[in-house]
């Protein structure tokens, strides 16, 4: 059984068409009205006759993450095997739903997400500022999530196996636009296999609520925070390996070498003297050793990306 969650906010002009285009193999459609000022949820109740649809009204606006957490909790009350998120503004095509469901049902993935960067030609329609912002966020998310092979982390088209969802703390997920990135981080904590699904970038007259320029500083901070948490969990709390030593020693040598070189350079500059060759050599050696150790750690981290399906080994939660 398949459940689709539609977070609804300022999408009254599109949501009915989106629901009508959802395939009949979907058994449940959960529309979450995130205190929408347009009354999208009420519109669905009054004008949609699809018996699969259930509307949930949130008492106050909490963002897409809050709406999805509400939808996840509701979906897990049923017997669905796969839970899918589709935005209700018409920019994610319901017709490609099966691409996201099949890999999970066939045991090839635990979590599927859309990737608009796969087809270069389709990117011509993407606004340049969004193209730059998504590229930057993809790079940051590789570090924070540990999924080095994924792109387009803010893509709202996702599908996840219910067992995977049951084994992560849904209530801890981010409330707003960082939701998808935080969910990727949670996938890594349990070793879920994530698969990118190629899709075209589609834009209509719906206005995006995500501002790249305003969100980038916040995303930078939050990605850095998740990166530190992931490194601590994977390399010091749950496990300790040669990669852990490479990371620690790499930081010591790299930061120590740079600090030593800068301090000595400033010291000799105050004396109007040239920095001795020996000092420069020591600085270069320490810095290069640290850099090589850090590269070794990153290589290990890239090879550590989950590559086996986990949902068939996870316990079913009651």
How would you describe what is shown here?
This protein has 318 residues and is an alpha/beta fold. It has ten helices and seven strands. A seven-stranded mixed beta sheet has the order 3-2-1-4-6-5-7, sandwiched between helices. The two termini are 18 Å apart. The mean pLDDT is 90.
Question: What characteristics describe this protein?
Answer:
alpha/beta; Spore Coat Polysaccharide Biosynthesis Protein SpsA, Chain A; 2 domains; seven-stranded mixed beta sheet; 47% helix; elongated
Give a short synopsis of this structure:
With 318 residues, the chain is α/β, with parallel strands linked by helices. It has helices at residues 15-20, 40-47, 64-75, 97-105, 128-145, 162-166, 179-189, 212-237, 242-270, 277-303, and strands spanning 2-8, 28-33, 53-57, 82-85, 111-115, 158-161, 194-198.
Mean pLDDT: 90
Question: Into which percentage range does the β-strand content fall?
Answer: 5-15%
Q: What's the CATH architecture of the largest domain?
A: Alpha-Beta Complex
Helix fraction by DSSP (H/I, runs of at least 4): 40-55%
Walk across the major sheet and give the strand order: 3-2-1-4-6-5-7
Computed CA radius of gyration, to the nearest angstrom:
23 Å
Which segments are poorly predicted (pLDDT under 50) over 5 or more consecutive residues?
A: none
CATH topology title of the largest domain: Spore Coat Polysaccharide Biosynthesis Protein SpsA, Chain A
Q: Which secondary-structure class do the elements indicate? A: alpha/beta
Q: Tally the beta strands.
A: 7
At the first level of CATH, the class of the largest domain is: Alpha Beta
């Amino acid at each position: 059984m398949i459940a689709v969650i539609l977070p609804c906010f300022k999408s009254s002009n599109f949501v009915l068409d989106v629901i009508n285009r959802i395939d009949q193999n979907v058994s449940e459609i959960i529309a979450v009205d995130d205190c929408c000022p347009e009354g999208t949820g009420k519109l669905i109740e009054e004008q949609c006759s699809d018996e699969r649809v259930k509307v949930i009204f949130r008492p106050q606006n909490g963002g897409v993450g809050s709406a999805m957490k509400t939808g996840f909790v509701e979906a897990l009350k049923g017997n669905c095997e796969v839970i899918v998120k589709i935005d209700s503004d018409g920019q994610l095509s319901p017709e490609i739903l099966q691409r996201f469901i099949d890999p999970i049902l066939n045991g090839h993935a635990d979590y599927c997400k859309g990737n608009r960067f796969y087809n270069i030609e389709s990117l011509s329609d993407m606004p340049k500022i969004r193209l730059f912002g998504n590229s930057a966020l993809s790079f940051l998310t590789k570090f924070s999530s540990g999924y080095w092979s994924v792109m387009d982390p803010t893509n709202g088209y996702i599908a996840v196996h219910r067992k995977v969802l049951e084994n992560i703390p849904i209530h801890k997920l981010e409330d707003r636009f960082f939701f998808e990135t935080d969910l990727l981080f949670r996938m890594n904590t349990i070793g879920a296999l994530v698969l990118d699904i190629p899709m075209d970038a589609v834009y209509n007259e719906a206005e995006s609520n995500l501002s790249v320029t305003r969100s980038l500083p916040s995303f930078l901070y939050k990605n850095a925070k998740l990166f530190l948490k992931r490194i601590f969990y994977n390399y010091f709390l749950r496990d300790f390996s040669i990669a852990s030593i490479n990371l620690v020693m790499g930081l010591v040598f790299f930061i120590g070498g740079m600090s030593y070189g800068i301090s000595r350079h400033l010291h000799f500059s105050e004396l109007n003297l040239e920095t001795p060759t020996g000092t420069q050599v020591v600085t270069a050696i320490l810095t290069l050793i640290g850099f090589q150790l850090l590269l070794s750690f990153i290589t290990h981290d890239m090879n550590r990306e989950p590559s086996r399906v986990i949902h068939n080994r996870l316990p079913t939660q009651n």
